[in-house]
Sequence to fold (312 residues):
Amino acid sequence: MHGQLNILDAIGNTPLVELRHIVPSGSARIVAKLESANPTGSMKDRLARTMIERASAAGRLPPGGTVVEYTAGTTGISLALVASAQGYRTHFVFSDAFSDEKRWTMRAYGAEITDVPSDNKKITKELIESMIAKAGEISRRPNHWWADQLNNEDGAAGYFGLGDEIWRQTDGNVDALVHTVSTAHSIHGMSRALKRRKPDLLVFAVEPAESAVLSGQSPGSHKIEGIGLGFIPPLWHRDEVDEILTVSTADAKAMARRLARDEAIFAGTSTGANVVAALRVAERLGLGATVATIVVDSGLRYLSTDVFRSVE
Fold:
């Protein structure tokens, strides 16, 4: 074996799978990157590695320092993985609006957690803004570095590799990218990498129907964890997206259940939203086209929530 391998070398190069059973005849084919195959079971491992490595190299994150972030859990788990592997501490701002699995996974990697209580477990603009403020406060302590994913320009670079992999795994046969928006790093990072090779790639952003702020509507509460902040992300570039699609929480949850049952893909609600939107795009583009989307994370993160409690 050449060189020393560590857990961070297992990030990326995830499988690409084609949806075989839920795509109607006459629609484009849909392929999905199985990001649940990353070490923590999420695409955010890519983001975390890039942000921490760049902050460390630039001297913003001191040796043995503490990484601070507000998180719906997924980014926190990934930051905790990378920090644990590289000898940093972590302190995250979290909330009861998000799943218990995420809390205990962050704790397992050694993270300290400060909670901001939600209004009856609803994800709202006010909740996210309170979490951001608390993270800012904690980050002012000595030897603490705030990852600040919303404003961190290194974020999109974490996903260039994901776009490159989609290109390679489809042999360049990809016509559209469909993906949900949180900070907007993943959709922009992937699409920039793909558009370097295919400038006419169609890019579809996805957001919760109940809080469709990218579409110009008022913020509201929803239950699609990890997306739909309730405000426009600071690093969102509308000109890099062809169209914005909305998906309701109910439809996203139903699709997460259907993916497990019909495609044997066990994933969370944001993946459900991705696939609902990808099916719409596939119907529009028709036979001969290929639509790419993302299996964002594993359904194992959501067993304590109501997503998999009802079977229809």
About this structure: Residues 43 and 303 are 19 Å apart (CA to CA). The radius of gyration is 18 Å. Helices lie at 44-57, 74-86, 100-108, 125-139, 160-169, 185-195, 249-263, 269-285.
